[in-house]
Queue: 2 jobs
Job 1
Amino acid sequence: MKELDLCTKGVRLAEKLGATQAEAVALRGRSVSLSIERSSIKGVDEGSFSSFGVRVYIGKSVGISTVTPLEENKVEVAIKKAIELARSSPPDENFVSLPESKEFEEVPGLYDKAVEDLTSEELVSNIRKGINALKDVDKTLDAAGSAELFITERFIVNSLGVERSQKASGLSFGIEALKKGSNGDVGTGFDYFFTRTTKELKFEEVGVNAANKAIKNVGGRRVKSGVYTLVLDERATLETIGGIVGYGANAFYVLQKASYYVNKLGTKVASEQLNVLDDPLYPYGWSSTPFDSEGYPSSKVKLIEKGILMNYITDSYTANALKIENNGHAGRGGLADKPRPRLTNLQIAPGEYEEDELFKDIKQGIYVYDSALSPVEGSSNISSLVDYGFLIEDGEIKYPVKNTMVGSTVFELLQSIEAIGKRTKNEAGRIAPKIRIRDVKVSG
Amino acid sequence: MSEIKTLVGSLKLEKEDFADFRITEVESTSLVVRKGNVEQVMHDISIGGAARVLVNGSWGFYYTTDLSSEGIRLALEKAYKAAKALSENVIEKSKVKIERTYEDEVKLNVKIDPRSISLEEKVKVVLEFDKNIWKGNEGIATTSVALSDSVKKEYIVNSYGTEVKYEVCSTRISGSAVAKEGDLIQNVSTSVGESRGWETIKEFDYVKEGQELGKRGVELLKALPPPSGKMNVIMDQSLVGVFIHEAFGHASEADAVKANRSILSGLIGKKVGDEAISVTDDPTIPGMRGSYPYDSEGTKAEKREIVRNGTLVGYLHSLETAAYLNAKPNGAARAMNFSSKPIVRMSNTFIENGEYSLEELAEMIKNGIYLAKSYGGYVDPARGQFYFTAQEGYLVENGKIGRKVQNVSMSGLTLDVLKNVMGVGNDLKLAFPGTCGKDGQWVPVSGGGPHIAVKEIVVGGRK
């Protein structure tokens, strides 16, 4: 394989030029995307790309260099630049070593040739089904959105014997419906799906869901400031807990002492009803990967069990520095970024409550959906806008809310989870139930 | 390069069709120091191009890293064929409006090219900045300092005859400090970002900025928990920058108007705010972070008035939105990189000066909160609901700015908030150098204004 050979040659050249350790990564891929505007297909974007990146260490000093496109003559330029940077850079005292090569398990379903073979015509036909389904609910609705398919191949080689390549496919569709109310008020609603395979296409379902949400969202009202019970839908649960745990349990921020979960392993950080894990090995999972961005085997990690913080997510850098196990969670924003731990498929275990039990007996509450209640820039404070929500009164959903904010802390919010739904939503390996949180400060 | 002009010209286009080809080349360097430890040192060179073709109202776009003649010809052909094949499915036909074409070349206009500065010197600056954050500031748990610079070259040719080549620089230094006591964590940050060269970093007072940053972080550990509810708020210049960007700027982007996704749709000439409010977006201010000479469609950048004395007077336009709304293209179409399409973006957005001092604004609101130092925000321009966050604040009690409070976020509604302005300060500053995200594309921008006082902002605290 040409790219693997180039990566191997790159690592050898870096070593020859003085690198103690080196890692070369190549990416190749293509994408097709179709956009929707004013309920009409608007245009098509396509393209192909290739990039090459190298990370070298001379002792503990790092240099990273990347080039786009990937061309044989540019590989040498990139490596020489990385060596030059590492030579001028003071040592990173936290660095110990790149990961060693270790056997890994394949994850089924990450590449589907049928996705790669989908034609623009087939995509167009599916998108039209989505728009038509939305319009069938209410023809006055306006639709905007896009569908995208991509194929990527990545290649990783390092000085310690890692030599990996992986091909993946993906297809996503998102649509936003907009409904104009009689008094100039506007309601919007969106829905989406993402999948690795053509077996789970939900164009029509997504169109109908977006339409219904937009219609219900018209007529938003402000709420009175006070203390409310919150019910989070599955996506709000996933995004909220993902935001809190994804930062707090990230070994990188723990190592930097920037996380609110420093020294919290084995302690109670949430209600004992809460069980959270991250599973990069989930078959057909949207964020699944047999090995991480450093080529180290991915593994399933228990993050919170009965409210107790069990583990951090790690990569080789943080695991070595903190002297804990590397659980193969290295991710990269782009080739130019140094890998860092990141969540993959977050999964929140179901609880014991039926849907109606979650809402029953709530005197004053907010049903929060398609929103995230997140910490403010890595601080322990939560101060979030409810992007989409409904007022709950005496156990019943009343009307959409607007300009409504939630104030709490990362500890208070998770400790105050008082009920977890029985049923979960599984979106390509990301799994969450609804949750109910008591006594939350709401401003309106 | 004129070969590309020939290739674009060889497409079989009808009267209302359009094509362009854009090459983007970026060279960038960045380094990150955490707790005095050099953690990341990176250099990147990326070059690629994209063909964009409008055929019978349908858009085709094809990006590529193959910039040989054959590669460019193929990209144009693929974009053309894709647009043509799709056109029967396009009900709402797009058009472009070309009022004039440009032929120009703008060279990099900086005093010191950051690419000429050695890594050793860059490392020295970040380490010194980092060291000063810690100095005398007990309670700091960790720090992070980042320095980045890039030079972008963009070359645009279109089927109407535009041929523009320009270079623009981006230089930025930022620092953040995490202060910690028990379970309480407060995170403060500061940054300077400009389109000038290394001179930006040379003029940056890392001793003063570092020590002040650390002090702010530590002081927040003793600050009051943030209040909650609807209240009168004074915003500092950095917060005003994000506020006006989120509350108004995005809804004035005409692609949102065209897509039925702006609450400001149809309101040109209508009162949208207090008489004292005027809002401008200006990419031509020399050296500002959001400045550029031409946009990614090759239209010359120009100053844009959005609100004049409380009345909505204009939108930001691309060639396409100008055609749709029968307006003049004003150079607001920007693409993040070669593989992204140009979309309508802000540049340097600000509220213009009023007449009051900060003390007078505090007296005006009597009781409320003075919020300072922005983290950022977001907006849903269709519904006009926006959110933004302050790193710190002070209670205003009996017209006096007093006790400090911790970080907190706010929310408001676009069509209400400018009408609720109580007073506009006289100390305009483009104090927020940011990076704005839209449709997955991130571009450098800045924002600012004078201090302003607004009533009935929802503050999302916990007390």
Job 2
Amino acid sequence: MQILRKASAGTMQSSDLMVVVEPSDTLQVDIESTVKKQYEHLIRARIASTLEELEISAGHIQVSDRGALDYAIAARIETAVRRASGE
Amino acid sequence: MGPILFDQPALNEARRLIESHGLRFEPEFDDLVGLFDDGQLVACGARAGYVLKMLVIEASHQGTDALGELVTRLILSAMSAGYDTVFIFTMPQNVASFEALNFRMLVTHGQTALLEHGPGLEAYLALHASQISPGNNGAVVINGNPFTLGHLHLVEFAARRVDRLYLFVVREDQSVFPFAVRFRLAQAATAHLPNVTVLDTSRYAVSAGTFPAYFLKQLDEVAAAQMQIDLLLFAERIAPCFHVACRFVGQEPLCETTAAYNKMMAEVLEAHLIRCVELPRLVANDLPISATRVRDAFAANDFDTLRELVPSATLAFLQSPSARPIAERLRSKMEKA
């Protein structure tokens, strides 16, 4: 799948996250999180594996997380990417 | 409980809610969102450009996630309007609530705090990282509406006294000359100075986000607080990154807002060990050169006067066909005034 346009998914409510994806030549993942100190590596790993499953190798992914669980992270990423790919 | 769009009765209700929380209702906004519970408005917030404002939550609904819901809506609306980063001015006691929404503190002073959400300042600094050189650097911040011989005089004076001079052009498009033109003219007029780098301020100096009153040209307590925020942002976040040890500014004999700003600048910057050098205005025909004078002469089609006020790059632009709509806008503004 390819990120063809800017799209978002999710909310900024507690235990959720907001994801914004847009086209880019390289893959860049920026994470803001209220639990960044403790969990950034896990959030990053989950985003990476989700992007891999979706076969995304380029794009600018911005995440604003408020302590979402990992399946919520995967779901929001997938939704944003599908919207950005025109599905 | 869910957000809906506002009609006139709901707008009146929002006004009451905002005013009952001690905030001023400002009718200038691009978007207003509210949360209703059982038909009652319990929370609302607005967005003007990239600035969120008038966020209010009834006491009965604090502790719910009303803030998260409002901010989600406002950020989505900002994004569809093309703003990835949003600002919020709030009181120090509310900072934690916004930090829990991943807002980052930019600067705080007295009863005001300025926070942002999005790529923001970090991305701005990363973008300009390659233009940053160490040394004893200086800064000049101008609107340049348009670039005059007075600006050039200030820049040349400053450039002789520092290793590198950063000439920041205010990004905010609230002036007759659009940012792209102001920026290009500043670059062209200073191209002969090898140690001058022209940069865009993004929103981090004299913008509607940091300093709306500059554009409104009125002076009151709110304006003074916002000037403080603007100057602290420069002193604490911008100057250290660009190794700025000295800021140069032209004396202001005419405009009250700018004169007050310059006075405060000296105080704030010097408290942060940044020198502040005020240079007397360059004079042409016994009058200080100012962009206001240039605009007046341009509106009057008085190119003899313009030749004495602006460098060749600005003059060439003013004589070009693409400047004609600007002259017309200036004339219609004057007729109105």
